[in-house]
């Protein structure tokens, strides 16, 4: 999937792509055709950088409801000839998830569209999962024949069916079909269930990777083999070292951390850092100065995991370094530093935004640190990140940090956060938005009464308004 093109944050499309609460508020006041066009653009061209983590489906589904939006564009997208050519889940996943939420709100057209796509679409398994949560037994039983028809009746087809049943995210349809009164359905599904269970048992009986009794060198060799295959195994390899290495093996591990092969060096650095070895910090500094890119990355990651006072003290000395170790030092101070570390954390935050922009991965930790340390001077930078980032998770972190650093948050961003796409951001807003704004009270009541809302959000809402106010 290509990285999405995100419109400027000041436009309706840009707001909706980011999942900001202001996107909903602006869409409800914009001309309806314009709002629906922007909404369809987002749903049909998933704007998320990480579609497996960031939330948008409930956000977009609620806006379809508020705009009384038709589903013609979604239908055309799902059944476009490209559906056969592009089988990636990312092409249709967001649209199917939106339909699932709409079905839970009682939109019959969304339910019927999901049923049709489960029967005929390429990404049918996702649609079936959505229906497993929302459809009745009769609707699911009607899909048994078209779904099973996707699998050939030869040995290869039955093996593919068994793997599909075994790995199903939502097992409800398969359990229903296993008890189907039609022998042709029930027999195949039961056989697939049994084959899947047997396959899982076989895999458990034939584990791959390290075994008890391996030597330190064997673990290093396993990590090196992983790198040759393009798989970074130094993290599990370091855990294996914890099981097989004794005090007598320390010199060998230290030598590997100093100048071993890439896999061995990454593994040794991780192991020594996790075990708080007294030489770990010196070896990490040397690795950053002399190691290859994978070694530098492993060394920096190992340093950031360290919880010792020595690591925090060393971070204070490294924070001004213009290299990956200096950036990691800023993140360590953000996570574990004290009030005396506010200045380097703020400097790291500003430098990250200036050098890498509002979507820099390092900002996640630095934003949290600004809030944890209560750095009031960071509020302007945090507001910039909140407005501009394309990551709804990073925006939520910025909102939490602003709640701790910006006195105007309760009457400002907290209000729009009540409409945000991320439930954790809505929860922050529910706890901090000033109820003097009538929009806030109305929104809190609606969230309290919405069965699709997360329990944590509703708990926060009910801490602000009485039980009699939630009965709407």
Brief account:
This protein has 472 residues and is mainly alpha-helical. It contains 31 helices and no strands. The two termini are 42 Å apart.
How would you sum up this structure, described in words?
The chain is mainly alpha-helical and 472 residues long. The protein has 31 helices and no strands. The longest helix has 23 residues, at 183-205. The model has no long low-confidence stretch (mean pLDDT 91).
Question: How would you summarize the topology of this molecule?
Answer:
Layout: H1 12-18, H2 21-29, H3 32-44, H4 57-67, H5 72-78, H6 82-85, H7 89-104, H8 108-120, H9 124-134, H10 137-141, H11 144-148, H12 155-166, H13 172-178, H14 183-205, H15 216-228, H16 234-244, H17 250-259, H18 262-274, H19 280-290, H20 293-305, H21 309-318, H22 324-336, H23 342-356, H24 363-372, H25 379-388, H26 392-405, H27 413-417, H28 423-432, H29 438-449, H30 455-462, H31 467-470
Helix pairs in contact: 1-2, 1-3, 2-3, 3-4, 4-7, 7-8, 7-9, 8-9, 12-14, 13-14, 15-16, 15-18, 16-18, 17-18, 18-20, 19-20, 20-22, 21-22, 22-23, 22-24, 23-24, 24-26, 25-26, 26-28, 28-30, 29-30
């Amino acid at each position: 999937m290509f990285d999405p093109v995100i419109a400027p944050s000041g436009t309706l499309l840009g707001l909706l792509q980011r999942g900001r609460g202001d996107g909903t508020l602006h869409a409800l006041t914009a001309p309806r055709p314009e709002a629906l066009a922007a909404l369809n653009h987002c749903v049909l061209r998933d704007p998320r950088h990480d579609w497996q983590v960031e939330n948008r489906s409930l956000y977009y589904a609620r806006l379809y409801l508020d705009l009384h939006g038709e589903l013609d564009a979604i239908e055309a997208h799902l059944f476009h000839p490209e559906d056969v050519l592009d089988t990636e889940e990312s092409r249709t996943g967001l649209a199917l998830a939106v339909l699932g939420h709409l079905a839970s709100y009682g939109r019959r057209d969304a339910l019927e569209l999901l049923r049709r796509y489960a029967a005929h679409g390429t990404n049918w398994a996702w649609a079936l999962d959505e229906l497993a949560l929302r459809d009745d037994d009769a609707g699911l039983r009607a899909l048994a024949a078209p779904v099973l028809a996707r699998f050939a009746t030869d040995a290869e087809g039955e093996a593919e069916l068994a793997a599909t049943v075994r790995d199903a995210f939502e097992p409800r349809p398969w359990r229903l079909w296993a008890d189907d009164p039609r022998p042709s359905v029930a027999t195949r599904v039961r056989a697939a269930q049994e084959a899947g269970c047997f396959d899982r048992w076989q895999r458990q009986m034939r584990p791959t990777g390290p075994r008890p009794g391996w030597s330190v060198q064997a673990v290093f060799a396993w990590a090196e083999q992983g790198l040759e295959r393009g798989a970074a195994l130094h993290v599990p390899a370091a855990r294996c070292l914890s099981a097989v290495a004794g005090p007598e093996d320390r010199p060998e591990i230290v030598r590997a951390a100093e100048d071993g092969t890439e896999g061995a060096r990454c593994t040794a650095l991780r192991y020594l850092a996790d075990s708080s070895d007294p030489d770990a910090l010196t070896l990490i500094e040397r690795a950053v100065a002399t190691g290859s890119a994978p070694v530098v990355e492993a060394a920096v990651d190992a340093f950031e995991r360290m919880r010792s006072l020595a690591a925090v003290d060393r971070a204070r000395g490294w924070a001004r370094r213009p290299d990956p170790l200096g950036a990691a030092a800023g993140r360590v101070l953000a996570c574990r530093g004290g009030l005396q570390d506010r200045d380097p954390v703020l400097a790291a935050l500003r430098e990250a935004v200036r050098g890498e922009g509002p979507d820099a991965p390092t900002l996640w930790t630095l934003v949290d640190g600004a809030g944890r340390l209560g750095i009031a001077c960071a509020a302007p930078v945090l507001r910039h990140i909140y407005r501009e980032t394309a990551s709804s998770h990073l925006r939520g972190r910025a909102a939490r940090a602003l709640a701790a650093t910006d006195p105007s948050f309760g009457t400002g961003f907290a209000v729009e956060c009540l409409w945000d796409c991320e439930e954790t951001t809505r929860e922050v807003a529910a706890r901090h938005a000033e109820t003097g704004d009538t929009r806030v009270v109305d929104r809190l009541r609606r969230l309290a009464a919405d069965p699709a809302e997360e329990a944590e959000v509703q708990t926060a809402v009910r801490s602000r308004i009485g039980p009699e106010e939630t009965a709407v």
